Amino acid sequence: MSLEMKVPTVGESITEVTLAQWLKNDGDYVEMDEIVAELESDKATFELPAEKAGILRHVASEGDTLEVGAVVCTIEDGGKGESAAPAKDTEIPKEEEKSAPVNEQSEESQESYAAGTASPAAAKILKEKGIDVKDIKGTGKDGRITKEDALNASVAASAPTKEKAAEAPAKATASVSANVPVGGSRDERHEKMSSLRKTIAKRLVSVKNDTAMLTTFNEVDMKPIMDLRTKYKDKFKEKHGIGLGFMSFFTKAVCTALQEWPSVNARLEENEIIYSNFVDVSIAVSAPKGLVVPIIRNAESLSLQGIERAVADLAAKAKNNKLTIEEMTGGTFTITNGGVFGSMMSTPIINAPQSAILGMHNIIQRPVAINGEVVIRPMMYVALSYDHRIIDGRESVSFLVRVKELLEDPTRLLLDV
Length: 417
Prior knowledge:
Elements: E1 3-6, E2 16-22, E3 29-30, E4 35-40, E5 45-49, E6 54-58, E7 65-67, E8 71-76, H1 94-99, H2 102-107, H3 120-129, H4 147-152, H5 162-167, H6 173-177, H7 195-210, E9 213-221, H8 223-240, H9 246-260, E10 267-269, E11 272-274, E12 281-283, E13 285-287, E14 290-292, E15 295-296, H10 304-319, E16 333-337, E17 356-360, E18 363-370, E19 373-387, H11 393-408, H12 411-415
Parallel strand pairs: 12-16, 16-17
Antiparallel strand pairs: 1-8, 2-4, 2-7, 3-6, 4-5, 6-8, 9-19, 10-11, 12-15, 13-14, 17-19, 18-19
Helix pairs in contact: 9-10, 9-11
C-alpha cells in the first residue's frame, strides 16, 4: 500500500511552493521522518520528512511549482533490500535501449518521426535558440532530430548559405549578418525563477511604485570604532565567545536614533501611521538562494554581545537555508551592508512595509579635513532611504546625523548619552 505525501500548509499567506531539490533518489528506501526533499516558498525553505518508512517514488520534479495539498511523492511498502528495485512502469525493453537513451524515449513518447523532423522537445529547444529545423541534420531513428541534436546545435548551424544570401534583398543584410558565425562560445542557460526570487522581484517593484522613496547620504569616520575594536576585540571574544564586529555598533546607534526620531521606525497601513515603541531590526543577509532579512527582536534592549550573537545565529541559519517564516516576519527598520561586497555608495530599497533602511558601505582610507588639517582617515559612506509620505526631510537628515555622531564617538553608545 502506498502513501501519498502532499505539500503541507506552511503559512497563512503561502499558497504554493517550489520543489527546490530531492535529497533522496526515486526508488530509495527511506526511514520515517527522514528528510526526502526541500520545498521553497516565497519566504523560506522547508524540509519534507517521510511520513512512513518504505520505498520513495518521485511524483514531482525539481523546479516544479506545487500548490498546497499537491502530491509531491509516494512511499510504497518495502524493506531496505528492495530500495534499488526500479518501478515496473519505468522499465525499458532491451530493444528500445539500443535505439535511444532512457530520457529521450520518455520525453519524446517513443514516437517515430520523418527524416528532418524534430521531436517536440527538440523543436522547443531549437525555437528558443532561433535555429531553423531544416538546417539541422538529425541523428535519431529515420533521421529524426533528437533532443540531443537540438542541445548540441549552435546558432552557426542556421547560418544562411551563399545561395540563400544571394536571394535575399539588400535591405535584409543587417538581419542576416546577425547569424554569421563568430569566434568563441555563445551558449545560453535558461533557469526558471525560484519562488523566492519572484517574490523579491515583485516586492522591489512594488516598493518603487508605491512609495515616495528618497535617499539621504552622509559619511562616518570609522577610526574611533576601529581603535576601540582593536583594543578590546580579544578580551571581548575571550569573555563572550563571539567576535566584535561593526554591525553591533551600527545596530546600537540605529536603536538610539530611532527612539529620538520615532517616525523613521513607523509604518503606513491604509490611512494610519503606526509607531512602534520597540525596535525589531531586519538584517539583510545574502543567502544561497537570494537576499533574506531575518530579524533581531527588541534590539534596543540588547548589549553589543547580544546583538553580535543574534547576527551570527541568523547568518548561519540563512547560509544553511534554515530560517523560519517567524524569523523573517515583521521588522520595523532594516540595515544592509553592501560594503562586504565592495560597494562604495548605493541607494538601498525600503523593505516594505517599513519606512526606512540604512545602507552601510566599504571603508576607504581618504583624506579629510579635521580641525583645519588634512589627515587620512578610514571613511564610510552611509545612506538612508526613506518613505517621504511618513518621514520628512528634517527627520531623515537628523536621524542620519545622529547615527553619525554616535558612531564617531562610540563611548556615547556605552554610556547612553
